[in-house]
Specification:
The chain is an alpha+beta fold. The protein has a domain of 119 residues: Lipocalin (Beta Barrel), CATH 2.40.128. The protein has three helices and eight strands. Strands 1-2-3-4-5-6-7-8 form an eight-stranded antiparallel beta barrel. It is globular, with a radius of gyration of 19 Å. The N terminus is likely disordered.
Length: 176
């Protein structure tokens, strides 16, 4: 009963005219993510939110054969494992979002986010919550249909992020 009264008191004291806590429109521009979910600037300031040549939504399906067999079942798997399943990589104006949905229900998927900058044929990933102080430096090449990465330097997850990003090409999603 006391809990119900506390909840009632809390809800009745909350103002209906309180300003919205939603982020401003410019913070909600990211396409493949929940509105307002911006990466945190762990080790470096966020780059200006301006379009880059790499921007797009990319997907990849990895088969058991491509992944080297069935993954080891786990409940707290390391992020950036190269396992069978479907992955999505969104590059949007200096912000990246990655998500992996495994083919096996016995394995946990993962998601991550961070910032990136493009400098010619080089792309740098940083501010990843899994590797807060580690930058991943890659070469990259994009066509109208595919995105590929070549590893230059990335120790995130003892090299797991590098293996994950470079193992196979990414296919540009239609309409992206």
């Amino acid at each position: 009963m006391a809990g119900a009264l506390t909840l009632l008191a809390f809800t009745t004291c909350t103002s209906a005219t309180e300003p919205s806590r939603a982020p401003p429109a410019e913070a909600r521009q990211n396409k493949g993510t929940d509105a307002g979910m911006q990466p945190f600037a762990y080790s470096a300031p966020a780059p200006e939110a301006t379009p880059t040549a790499a921007d797009g939504v990319y997907t990849r399906r990895v088969t058991l054969a491509q992944a080297g067999g069935a993954p080891v079942p786990c409940r707290r798997c390391a992020p950036y494992r190269f396992d069978a399943g479907r992955s999505t990589l969104t590059l949007d104006s200096g912000r990246y979002y990655v998500a992996h949905k495994p083919a096996s229900p016995k394995v946990m998927g993962f998601a991550s986010t961070g910032h990136f900058i493009v400098e010619g044929d080089r792309i740098v990933f940083f501010n990843d919550p899994n590797c807060t102080t580690t930058k991943g430096i890659y070469s990259w090449e994009a066509s109208s249909a595919e995105l590929t990465f070549g590893r230059r330097r990335d120790r995130c997850g003892i090299g797991l992020r590098a293996e994950y990003l470079t193992a196979l090409p990414w296919t540009k999603s239609a309409g992206a």
